[in-house]
Amino acid sequence: MTNVVITGTGLYTPEHAIDNAALVAAFNTWVDNENARHADAIARGEREPLAHSSSEFIEKASGIKSRYVLDASGILDPERMCPRLPLRQNDEPSIQCEMAVSAAHQALEKAQVAPDDIELVIVACSNMERAYPALAVEVQQMLGAKGYGFDMNVACSSATFALESAANAIASGSIKRALVVNPEICSAHLNFRDRDSHFIFGDACTAVVLENSVDAVADERFEIIGTRLVTQFSNAIRNNAGFLNRVTDSDPLAIDKLFVQEGRRVFKEVCPMVAQLITDHLTSLELSGSDLKKMWLHQANRHMNDLIARRVLGFEPSEAQAPIILDRYANTSSAGSIIAFHLHHEDMVEGDIGVICSFGAGYSAGSVVVRRQ
């Protein structure tokens, strides 16, 4: 039987950070400008005034205190309120490729693996900057990896779905080593003019090296002892941006072409789905919540993570048991659970078991149970 191990992870963090206070100041300035512009309609009762946001509201609702972004100036400009990124020419590396390569080099160094030993590259994230050619093939070329690559989008669950695909390819014997990268530019598809969601996302990229255990030389190895995926269709989280917008005469800048969600519905429906997925997965492996030392969960909302962890563990989780990184990084979509793993795994000793779990739009959720070797 082929054992698949995670031998290295990497993290690209943008240099720009925005705390809640700065984000709220920009949002509230925009709100004041909009209310002033529509003052007559508001006075006549034809239009409701827009409400201010606040740092207290954001932190209480989500646990988020700040986020990293590729560009802060455009987001904090009340006249723009979206990132300002440079247009890349076709002969230049794409933005997501650069992020992926940066994180990948860290993961490869940790795994003590040369780029040309990689036989599969999967770029898995919630949004791609182009339809084709595949970002994964560009990353493959930039790194000097061999074999093949492909892109995958399962929204916030993309990382765990890609880990299963990579692990299966290794277990089948078709390859020995794979690289999964998650370049998330969430700030580019977030509506910074929506009070309910303007604070949710940040940008980051993670990378994971997976190998056949017999070929691994890294000191730190996490054996993948099981994976399980689930999907259930829902419109509660949606983004309608797509290539058909131009032929359906749909406004490409309309609000529905950005991230839109029904937050309370998502909380109510996703939490039990994820807790059940993890519990059933553990049972199938003859394990239970009491066997878990760590739960590296998707980093969307602290309250969601606390509830899911309580249902799986049977008690209130400690910071060590269910690490939170969303307070600094916000929701980085598919990268979130991998950031948690990357930053909070070094206290795991031989035999310790943990679960990497991501969940989000689709609905989708993935569980990857690992054991420290």
UniProtKB/TrEMBL annotation:
Residues 285-371 form the Beta-ketoacyl-[acyl-carrier-protein] synthase III C-terminal domain. Coiled coil: none annotated. Residues 150-229 form the Beta-ketoacyl-[acyl-carrier-protein] synthase III N-terminal domain. Gene3D superfamilies: 3.40.47.10. Its EC number is 2.3.1.180. Signal peptide: none annotated. It comes from the Bacteria. GO terms for molecular function: 3-oxoacyl-[acyl-carrier-protein] synthase activity; beta-ketoacyl-acyl-carrier-protein synthase III activity. CDD domains: KAS_III (cd00830). One of its GO terms (biological process) is secondary metabolite biosynthetic process. InterPro entries: ACP_syn_III_C, ACP_syn_III_N, Thiolase-like. SUPFAM superfamilies: Thiolase-like. Keywords: Acyltransferase, Transferase. It is an enzyme of class 2 (transferase). PANTHER family: 3-OXOACYL-[ACYL-CARRIER-PROTEIN] SYNTHASE 3, BETA-KETOACYL-[ACYL-CARRIER-PROTEIN] SYNTHASE III. NCBIfam families: PRK07515.1. This is 3-oxoacyl-[acyl-carrier-protein] synthase, KASIII.
